[in-house]
Amino acid sequence: MGSKSGPTANATLDDKARVQLRLARAAQEAGNTGSAVRFYRAVLDQAPGHVGALLGLGETLSESGSAADAVVELQKAAAAVPDNVEVQTALGRALVRANRPADALNRFDALLRRNDDDLRARLNRGVALDLAGRHTEAQGEYRHVLKAEPNNAAAMANLGLSLALNGSAEGVAILEGLVQGGVDSPRVRQNLALAYGLKGDLEAAARVARLDLDDANVRSNLAFYETARQFVAFKP
Hints:
The chain has 2 domains: 1-83, Serine Threonine Protein Phosphatase 5, Tetratricopeptide repeat (Alpha Horseshoe), CATH 1.25.40.10; 151-236, Alpha Horseshoe (Serine Threonine Protein Phosphatase 5, Tetratricopeptide repeat). α2 runs antiparallel to α3, α4 packs antiparallel against α5 (85-97) and α7 runs antiparallel to α8 (135-148). It is built from 13 helices and no strands. Helices cover 73% and strands 0% of the residues.
């Protein structure tokens, strides 16, 4: 938080609030969403404009599925520090999760106008483009990142999914390579399951999906894959 690009923290916190802020950050890092939200809100009760607390609260809400609420908190932070890269990036990501790709693109475009080498902004811009159905443009962003960082697993995983959504068998191959190469997080595995489903290989999709999901969720996902496949013309 004290980095050059990090949010500026108000210096008005009392000892109790400073402890609560440390506890909030620790809870956020540990994935304890409820405690993190509670402690961040306690800090904001005392210092409503504290950017570090607003950022932490927004990120926690966004990561826990409350994207609309996250956008509200992060917009407050962005208004306070409009030139802050970390805050603007977090807001853009929350806008993606809130299914607002056009607004997210505005944020990432602004970041790239300031720094064309901001690979994080490019990666997130690709996600927003995919959400908007602009898969070819999204793939261009992922490939830009991979040209600079060939081993960027997030860019590779996003590229694989984007290609699959665009009906390309190359996407399946990329995701298979990631899983076989050890980059087999639940997110990557479920992206591979989706890619198999879009290709029409429901047996493979079910096999991969079961690595992380129970039978009820697997059945639900398979039904979704079958529906989604109608909108994707898969190309070898």
